[in-house]
């Protein structure tokens, strides 16, 4: 989100906070007049407490304003938690990557850890020599959100839904789920299983095809137990793409249809169970604040297929440095790719939508000034913490997505070593 948008989002609310005689702690409010209990705040760190709280009665709000306020606070809480989770994941993965490549010390955030990782990668690549060639082969992660979970979430938070039902659609992505019939498309295997199609990942035996990992068998007709740059027949530990008559780990492409002992993406001969969407989930008759809050909540637990990473280095001047670099990237990059590729576009969109919902809730707080300074002070005190936190959460998510993309781009980028993206 650009600086102008951030200023537009933050200054009106911060101005209201600074102008209010009572700020952050509800317990310090002066004695309330008007509706009984005016000024008593819910636990604004707990979504359930916010949902149970009667904003309409306690603050004398109309139903629409109370709904906007409740939706804004709930969305802010969920966004704050989502931002913290993304930051924690990147802090761990990028921190481990930096440390594995020789960096020392702890890192205060995901952004600082990833920046340290980029620097450490550059330092190690500098030891590989000008003639070194680096190629990265990646099967990117796919992250899907449960349609059932979204349906249940919006039914719980949007009182306008008749009978508690919500229409939820998957747009711009794949619909996947558990298929008890025949799956036509791809099958993300939860564990190694037989694959009646093309195996993308690893095959434990009777494999024939390309293999960018270790081939144990023959490579272009020659016996080998190591890397193969041709057709592998035998066993492929990673980077397999071909026919596997053994056990496949990864994705099985079932072009002709077959049974799927995992998650089917494509079409199923019967209705899929536990449907999930890799695109955008649409709930057209649901309020914007409810949808934004549920999106932020559900992105805390997306179902992501693991990224498969294979790094190849040739003609390195320092074999030990090359081996260390290869091991560190293959170990830590998959978690970073979960953010940089799997969640990138949609999670930034979720943050932007929540920011808009919080802005709408801010207008409720601002309008309360007309009811008197006590009302404005009471509302401001209750919502200041989650709303100001949401401002930081939007910036944190955007910064962490950007730096995760930078780490991915830096793996095989040209530098002292001659990079070649796979």
Give an overview in words.
The protein has two domains: 3-131 and 316-420, no CATH class; 144-298, no CATH class. It is built from nine helices and 17 strands. The protein has helices at 3-19, 47-52, 55-59, 63-100, 110-125, 147-157, 288-298, 319-367, 373-410, and strands at 133-139, 143-146, 169-171, 175-178, 183-189, 193-194, 198-211, 214-219, 222-227, 231-244, 247-258, 262-268, 273-277, 280-282, 303-304, 308-314, 418-420. Residues 1-39 and 415-422 have low confidence and may be disordered. The protein is flat. It is of the alpha+beta class. A hairpin with a 2-residue loop joins strand 8 (214-219) and strand 9 (222-227). The strands form three sheets. Strands 2, 4, 5, 6, 7, 8, 9, 10, 11, 12, 13 and 15 form a twelve-stranded antiparallel β-sheet that branches. Helix 7 (288-298) runs antiparallel to helix 8 (319-367).
Distance between the termini: 30 Å
Order of helices and strands: HHHHHEEHEEEEEEEEEEEEHEEHHE
- Percent helix, as a range, is 40-55%
As a percent range, the share of strand residues is: 25-35%
Largest sheet: 12 strands, antiparallel
Oligomer: single chain
Write the layout of secondary structure elements.
Layout: H1 3-19, H2 47-52, H3 55-59, H4 63-100, H5 110-125, E1 133-139, E2 143-146, H6 147-157, E3 169-171, E4 175-178, E5 183-189, E6 193-194, E7 198-211, E8 214-219, E9 222-227, E10 231-244, E11 247-258, E12 262-268, E13 273-277, E14 280-282, H7 288-298, E15 303-304, E16 308-314, H8 319-367, H9 373-410, E17 418-420
Parallel strand pairs: 1-17
Antiparallel strand pairs: 1-16, 2-13, 2-15, 3-14, 4-12, 4-13, 5-11, 5-12, 6-11, 7-10, 7-11, 8-9, 8-10
Helix pairs in contact: 1-8, 1-9, 4-5, 4-7, 4-8, 4-9, 5-9, 6-7, 7-8, 8-9
């Amino acid at each position: 989100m650009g600086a102008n948008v951030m200023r537009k989002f933050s200054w009106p609310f911060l101005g209201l906070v600074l102008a209010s005689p009572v700020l952050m702690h509800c317990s310090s409010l002066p004695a309330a007049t008007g509706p009984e209990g005016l000024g008593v705040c819910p636990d604004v760190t707990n979504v359930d407490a916010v949902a149970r709280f009667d904003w309409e009665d306690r603050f004398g709000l109309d139903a629409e304003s109370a709904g906007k306020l409740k939706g804004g606070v709930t969305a802010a809480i969920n966004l704050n938690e989502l931002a913290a989770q993304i930051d924690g994941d990147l802090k761990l993965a990028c921190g481990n990557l930096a440390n594995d490549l020789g960096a020392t010390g702890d890192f205060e955030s995901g952004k600082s850890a990833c920046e340290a990782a980029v620097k450490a990668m550059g330092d190690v690549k500098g030891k590989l020599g000008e003639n070194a060639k680096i190629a990265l082969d990646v099967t990117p992660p796919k992250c899907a959100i449960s349609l059932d979970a979204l349906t249940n979430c919006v039914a719980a938070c949007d009182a306008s839904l008749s009978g508690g039902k919500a229409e939820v659609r998957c747009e711009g992505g794949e619909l996947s789920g558990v298929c008890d019939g025949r799956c036509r498309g791809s099958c993300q295997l939860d564990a190694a299983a037989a694959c009646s199609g093309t195996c993308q990942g690893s095959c434990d035996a009777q494999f024939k095809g390309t293999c960018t990992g270790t081939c144990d068998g023959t490579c272009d007709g020659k016996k080998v137990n190591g890397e193969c740059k041709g057709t592998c027949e035998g066993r492929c530990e990673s980077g397999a793409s071909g026919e596997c008559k053994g056990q496949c780990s990864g994705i099985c492409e079932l072009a002709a249809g077959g049974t799927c002992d995992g998650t089917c993406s494509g079409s199923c001969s019967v209705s899929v169970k536990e449907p999930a969407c890799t695109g955008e989930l649409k709930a057209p008759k649901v309020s914007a604040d409810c949808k934004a809050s549920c999106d932020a909540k559900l992105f805390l637990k997306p179902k992501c297929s693991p990224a498969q990473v294979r790094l190849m280095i040739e003609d390195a001047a320092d074999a030990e440095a090359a081996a260390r670099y290869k091991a560190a990237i293959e170990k830590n990059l998959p978690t970073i790719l979960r953010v940089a590729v799997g969640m990138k576009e949609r999670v930034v969109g979720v943050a932007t939508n929540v920011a808009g919902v919080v802005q709408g809730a801010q207008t409720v707080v601002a309008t309360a000034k007309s009811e008197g300074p006590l009302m404005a002070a009471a509302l401001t005190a209750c919502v200041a913490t989650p709303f100001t936190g949401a401002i930081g959460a939007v910036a944190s998510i955007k910064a962490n997505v950007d730096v995760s993309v930078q780490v991915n781009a830096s793996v095989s980028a040209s530098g002292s070593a001659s990079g070649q993206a796979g």
